[in-house]
Give the backbone structure.
Amino acid sequence: MTTVAQKTPGWLDWDPAPSAPAFRLPAGAVDAHCHVFGPQAEFPFAPERKYTPCDGGKDQLFALRDHLGVTRNVIVQATCHGSDNSAMLDAVRASDGRARGVATVRPAITDAELHSLHEAGVRGVRFNFVKRLVDAAPVEDLRTIARRIAPLGWHVVVYFEAADLPGLEGFLGTVPTPLVVDHMGRPDVTRSVDGPEFARFLRFTDRHDVWVKVSCPERLSVTGPAAVDGRRRAYDDVVPFARRVVEECGDRVLWGTDWPHPNLTDHMPDDGLLVDHLPRIAETADRQWRLLVDNPMRLYWPEEL
Ligand code: 0GY
């Protein structure tokens, strides 16, 4: 019998009734960063995980996709599932071609296993450097994995805090695949968008084949969702950072909801509001189309272009 672990105390559940966004997503929009959690009775969480989420399975993800007007999803392996990609793969397989996956793998994975992940729809692996989420993997293991996946045409999704970039830059510069950075490298948005920390991040994206997700205003914001003018001003302090990335890396930016929003204890975002944040950071129809359709399609469904 499966033992069901209790959710981490203080952890907020995802919003079961997000608002209908006022912003209409362009046809073919991709949510390029979301997860599935379990359901744990079917897909138990990893023993080594650092948090236990509530369930957020594929049916609920697909319902959100349809509610928001999203066409496709990129389902990123979350740390609570470790390197057991079963829940993510089950969701990708059930999506009828409308989802791709990003997996977590160990260096000992066989070529046959990698090919089977590719067949299922996986197009990248994730290296997570956020210490509260995972114990650091040896750099040699990451090098091995990067070398093994390169021939498949995959990329490496990296998650790190802004303060850790200087220490990681040397290693990341040696990865022989494109890099995709989660949540804009988590800038401190109380600092200036013109300051040295964000300038360093932008230089880093410029020097290598680096794509950036302008996701997670709810994680980065200090002003929060309910700023001065209601919906239109939500997550105001994140806007200059995301807008700068969209302007400077227009053909290498991606967006995602981050549903079911792991590890939030302060507030749970309304996913409709996250969609309404988009025209503030991508201000023209062309920028919106590149961010939401053309860029993710080139990275995850190039054969359909
Ligand atoms: C995210 C963010 C977080 C969690 C994870 O895999 C994860 O557990 O990525 C976080 O807590 O910042 O990308 O969903």
In short: Residues 35, 78-80, 133, 159, 182, 219, 258, 262-263 surround 0GY (CB under 6 Å). Residues 227 and 233 are 5 Å apart (CA to CA). The chain has one domain: 4-300.
